[in-house]
Amino acid sequence: MKPAPFAYVRPGSLADALSALAGDPGAKVLAGGQSLVPLLSMRLAAPSTLVDINGLPGLDAVTVTADGVRVGALARHADVLAHDEAARVQPLLRLALSHVAHATIRNRGTTVGSIVHADAAAEMPVVLTLLGGSVEVAGPSGTRTIPATDLYVGPLETCLAQDEIATTAFFPALAPGARVAFAEIARRHGDYALVGAAALVDGDSVRVGYVSVGDVPTVVDLTGVPLNEMAATALAQLDPADDIHATAAYRAQLVRVLTERVVTEARTDD
Amino acid sequence: MTTKLMGTGVQRVEDQRFLRGLGRYADDVAVDPSTLHAAVLRSPHAHARIVDIDVADVLDVEGVHAVWTYDDLTGPMAEPLPLLIPHPMLTHGRTQYALAKDEVNYVGEAIAFVVADDRYVAEDAVGKIKVSYELLPPVVGIDAARAADRLVHDDVPGNVGARMEQNTGDVQAAMAAAPHRLTLDLTVERSACMPMEGRGTVARWDPDIDRLQVWSSTQTSTGVRAVVAVKLGLDLRQVDVITPDVGGGFGVKINHPWPEELLVPLAARTLGRTVKFTEDRREHFISTAHERGQVQYIEVGFDDDGRLLALDVKFWHDHGAYTPYGLIVPIITSTQLLGPYKPEVYRVVFESLYTNTVMVTPYRGAGRPQGCFAMERTMDAIAAELGKDRTEVRAVNFIQPDEFPFEQGLVFQDGRELTYDSGDYPASLEKIKALIGWDEFPAFRAEMAAEGRQVGIGLACYVEGTGVGPYEGAHVHVETSGKVKVATGLTTQGQGHATVFAQLVADELGCRFEDVEVVTGDTRRMPYAVGTFASRAAVMSGSAIHLAAKRAKEKALKIAAEALEASPDDLQIVDGVVSVKGSPGSSIDLGTVAVLSNPLRYAFDEASKAATQFTVGDPGKPPVAEDEEPGLEGTDFYSPERSTFASGMHAVIVETDPLTAEIRILKYAVVHDCGKLINPMIVEGQIHGGVAQGVGGALYERMVYDESGQLLNASFMDFLMPYVTEVPDGIDIDHLETPSPLNPLGIKGAGEAGVIPSAAVFASAIEDAESIPITAMPISPSELFHLRLTHAEETP
Ligand SMILES: Cc1cc2nc3c(=O)[nH]c(=O)nc-3n(C[C@H](O)[C@H](O)[C@H](O)COP(=O)(O)OP(=O)(O)OC[C@H]3O[C@@H](n4cnc5c(N)ncnc54)[C@H](O)[C@@H]3O)c2cc1C
């Protein structure tokens, strides 16, 4: 389990990083390495160059303003999880992050890396999508902002080009009076969820985002649907699948249980 | 007298090293850059003929030193690997070649062996080997093996490696006469040992002394030594095998030789370089060994009290592609299935079947978990049928304390009669009921039900034959410094042997515990040994060490008696000092006794002057008496007539979620009888580890093969070992000590016990919570959810 040969660069500026990426169509960004390094070791990925962005200045900040939380590309899951201001402005961050892997992995893995890795079994892409967040991306021709709803195009696939770097993820603040809840069921503590659900309730509006029930993070608008029909409505738009850990039917059952659980919790005053 | 250490929870002397990261494993040996590294090309197909292997591109890779395929092997290396345990009933035993010859029979089978500057280059080179295959239809799973539409080996009809039957009487007649009868269809899936350290071998050929040094992460260094010598055409004296620290074995490292265990020494000798192979995790999944997979059919006849009148068991054992370890696993299942019970008549028939999957060799418990599952599921089924308490049905079938030695009328894995030496099962049952709160459970269940929660309680009993022969030996050497060096040949995988063996030596010899240093698994120090398996180390090496220490003590007393001009009977040894009982002024320390034991011509320091020809001995007699040897040493061997039988009972309370079917452990209790305890803390550690492994086997771990024979979950991402968060927070343990009459210390083995009843006890508890028969393990929430659906459909 050793990676195939690759070139390694650790640029000190964003411009250098972008030109390193542009200089080799087989180049890939290395952030926390928690998803990429296992892929390299199992030779499931064999980039010709790794552009390690851990030396880029100014990307490790978690910045909180009244309108939301900005997470730099080098902020670790653990940094975001521990950030009290971030948790106050957008409580769903902490609720969801506590389910992301284990402490050791959260210490290295980045939240932005998770978002652009685009695993439909990961929590943070769903959170970003549910909250209507966005990602700021730097490329050879400047920067652009991609709304979460446009970001995910397929399994493990975003609309980022090979020569772009995501620099920041933006999670909007929770609107006054709005409430969130998160729940998931995994085989073991810290595993990727068999099914996860995040609810955002704002007045009459009810939206639920689902983890591990489709190829891409999926958010379903359940506004106006009676509680006991929500799961059925959601399931009509989801695509739970069989794998070695659970059948599609069992995942559908978890969608039923978790939908009710998170919506009820988000509606309950604490 | 100092207090005896036997029976006390002495802190482990190993832990300082291990906890500080100072353990030294095979991969830590020969870390200098001149060491070469090996990688193996493994079959991507479960069943295929090898048409051609083209290694031309490999030799161009910079940093590659050599590549071997089957065609490069000669002499004994070109023969199949040994069939280690050639049981007469294994009519169609097959073993693989070190490198596949013409055909591959499982995904992962070794085809080519590359040696390069480092493992990265070696893996790059492996990727450049071109093999053309002609695919053959694979046989995956017991059903396919039984159907035998396809064969794993053309010359093995029906895929049957062995068929074996044992009985204790006319089961058909007894069945026909029984007032009640039941049948059960049961399944236990495949799992595997997952030691933190995988396999690893390092070899160095020393041309100056024509000698091969091998370090291997093995459970038998003497076994590896013998086979390396034979396969490489070396004299035994030219081969040393050293077992460094081993990061877990759990059975899988008793099988030997692995292809790499021969190819690494071959490469070292051929290239004149140190060569290392360190297995990675994927290799451990697909090219080492698995266990457990069985399908069982049970018919049982019983009376109104649930007494077993006739027990008729058939099972089909999936042994994978090859049978290097013979029939040990199914024989153990078939005999240890009986547990603490005495059916009037028992018949068991098994077929051991070939499949195109990784081979099966013992994994902690070694067939017992499956046997326990069969028997305990049967007990629960009888209780349900008669509407009786599950503990009552067990109690009426127990062998009673006054019935030992008890002959089951079967032949055990070692070819000897299955005779239990001692035990007290009724006492264990009382203890386990009290520990788990069996009688209070109905009230607890009602309390939980009131909260909308669903709970169940389960119980399982087992008997474990431990400490099988043929023998182990020990050498105890008191150095002139007073330090005591102990060597025994079996190996250590973290059990704490250096602690418990030192306890035994300190107790018997009278030296200080701190002065004892124990070495295991080094053929330079003890070339006669068998290995560590079958919960045998404490019984076998423990007894041998006790006997060897006794010999050293006798010698010390004899020499000291002369020096102190006293009778040996009047002497005592305490804290390393020999003194005359009652007159402490008259004493000599063990180091000085060691000096005196070795008459010298040449003094090399002050102490040794005391042993030169001018100072010791009677000038009228030879300096070393006729039946004596120089040196303060003792060597002895222990070889028991038969195994000793430990036993125990586990109980668990689980909660099952009515909506998500998640299974939570609320309470876990163990009553354990391994005879006299040497170190209760270490025994409890073994139980904790066993229970954790058992939780894995019952609720999480399985080997998921697809129809083409690909293992779909060959990584720790998808093979779900329980984390600390999945095992019980606490395990309530109670010990019973029924001494074994078979060894001088009265001990029985403890290593495997913790894992034996797991599948049975969880099935029992989940069935109790759900009121749905549980017939297959492991069980996941998804499976429990589907069981509920099917059950609801079947019972309108
Ligand atoms: C045992 C284990 C359990 C885990 N469990 C979970 C879990 O339960 N839930 C969960 O969500 N995750 C889990 N993870 C994954 C973890 O969250 C990763 O940290 C995360 O998926 C990727 O972040 P990273 O910084 O490590 O990215 P890397 O591994 O460095 O990169 C991942 C991918 O994203 C790309 N990339 C990274 N950063 C950028 C960027 N700024 N711009 C452009 N491309 C970029 C890389 O090129 C690569 O393709 C687990 C990981 C492990 C090892």
Automatic annotation (TrEMBL), chain A:
Q: Does the keyword Oxidoreductase apply?
A: yes
Q: Which InterPro entries match?
A: CO_DH_flav_C (IPR005107), CO_DH_flav_C_dom_sf (IPR036683), Diverse_Substr_Oxidored (IPR051312), FAD-bd_PCMH (IPR016166), FAD-bd_PCMH-like_sf (IPR036318), FAD-bd_PCMH_sub1 (IPR016167), FAD-bd_PCMH_sub2 (IPR016169), Mopterin_DH_FAD-bd (IPR002346)
What is a GO molecular function of this protein?
Answer: oxidoreductase activity
- Any one Pfam family match given in the protein's UniProt record, by short name: CO_deh_flav_C
State the UniProt keywords alphabetically: FAD, Flavoprotein, Oxidoreductase
- The chain positions of domain FAD-binding PCMH-type read 1-176
Q: Which PANTHER family match?
A: XANTHINE DEHYDROGENASE SUBUNIT C-RELATED (PTHR42659)
Q: What name goes with this protein?
A: Carbon-monoxide dehydrogenase medium subunit
Organism encoding this protein: Nocardioides szechwanensis
UniProtKB/TrEMBL annotation, chain B:
Top-level division of the source organism's lineage: Bacteria
By its UniProt entry, which InterPro entries does this protein fall under? Ald_Oxase/Xan_DH_a/b, Ald_Oxase/Xan_DH_a/b_sf, Ald_Oxase/xanthine_DH-like, AldOxase/xan_DH_MoCoBD1, AldOxase/xan_DH_MoCoBD2, AldOxase/xan_DH_Mopterin-bd_sf
Keywords per UniProt: Molybdenum, Oxidoreductase
Which Pfam family name is an example for this entry?
Ald_Xan_dh_C
Stored Gene3D superfamilies: Aldehyde oxidase/xanthine dehydrogenase, a/b hammerhead, Aldehyde oxidase/xanthine dehydrogenase, molybdopterin binding domain
Stretches assigned to the Aldehyde oxidase/xanthine dehydrogenase a/b hammerhead domain:
20-137
- tRNA processing listed as a keyword: no
Which residues, if any, are the signal sequence?
Answer: none
Q: Which GO terms describe its molecular function?
A: iron ion binding; oxidoreductase activity
SUPFAM superfamilies to which the protein is assigned, alphabetical: CO dehydrogenase molybdoprotein N-domain-like, Molybdenum cofactor-binding domain
Instruction: Specify the protein name.
Output: Carbon-monoxide dehydrogenase large subunit
